[in-house]
């Protein structure tokens, strides 16, 4: 099986990094170097609960301090301990899907509430399927829908309103495609790609939620 996804996984106390061996197509809502383009690395980083910095300048300082190249590095932030991240992998024929997720649910916000707390769900999905831009956006939507479905099924509520929320106020999704061919236009939940990706996201969040409950019970 030939995998086009190749990267080094580096883990420190307050962040982990996926350092790609080749550039990937990037579709990301990350606060630093998000957007659409090319990426060389992805970082998910733990910050303090009272973090109230100007994200761009502070992240640049963080990267410089750790001697990490700024250009092409996508960075997400969370108050969650990133060492508790969950990884899921799935192989479909000759292509693959890899998901890295961290999640904190204290900041769950229902529709209509504009006041958030602390907590973030950061999802990064890597794939070498030859998705077109439209196909990637299909997959992006699939990921968000899966997260919202989990929040509903697990009855994760907004503390302020008591309503179930579709996510937190600071969630991010980043999709990295290690294939420049663009022959697959669809990746919704009823496609093979979307079906597997949705289950990976849903089950990873389920695992994190169960781990959080166990940790609270032991505290």
TrEMBL record:
<dbReference type="InterPro" id="IPR002808">
    <property type="entry name" value="AdoCbi_amidolase"/>
</dbReference>
<dbReference type="InterPro" id="IPR052209">
    <property type="entry name" value="CbiZ"/>
</dbReference>
<dbReference type="Pfam" id="PF01955">
    <property type="entry name" value="CbiZ"/>
</dbReference>
<protein>
    <recommendedName>
        <fullName>Adenosylcobinamide amidohydrolase</fullName>
    </recommendedName>
</protein>
């Amino acid at each position: 099986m030939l995998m086009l996804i190749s990267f080094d996984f580096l883990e420190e106390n307050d962040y982990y990094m996926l350092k790609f061996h080749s550039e990937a197509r990037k579709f990301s809502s990350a606060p630093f170097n998000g957007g659409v383009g090319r990426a060389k690395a992805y970082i998910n980083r733990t910050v303090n609960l009272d973090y109230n910095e100007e994200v761009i300048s502070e992240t640049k300082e963080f990267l410089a301090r750790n001697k990490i190249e700024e250009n092409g590095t996508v960075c997400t932030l969370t108050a969650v301990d990133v060492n508790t991240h969950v990884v899921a992998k799935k192989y479909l024929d000759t292509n693959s899907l890899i998901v890295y997720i961290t999640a904190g649910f204290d900041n769950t916000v229902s529709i209509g509430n504009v006041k958030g707390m602390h907590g973030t769900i950061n999802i990064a999905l890597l794939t070498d399927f030859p998705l077109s831009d439209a196909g990637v956006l299909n997959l992006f939507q699939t990921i968000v829908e899966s997260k919202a479905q989990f929040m509903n099924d697990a009855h994760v509520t907004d503390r302020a309103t008591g309503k179930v929320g579709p996510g937190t106020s600071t969630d991010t999704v980043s999709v990295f495609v290690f294939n420049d061919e663009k022959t697959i236009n669809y990746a919704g939940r009823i496609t093979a790609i979307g079906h597997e990706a949705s289950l990976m996201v849903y089950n990873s969040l389920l695992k994190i939620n169960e781990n959080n409950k166990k940790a609270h019970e032991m505290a």
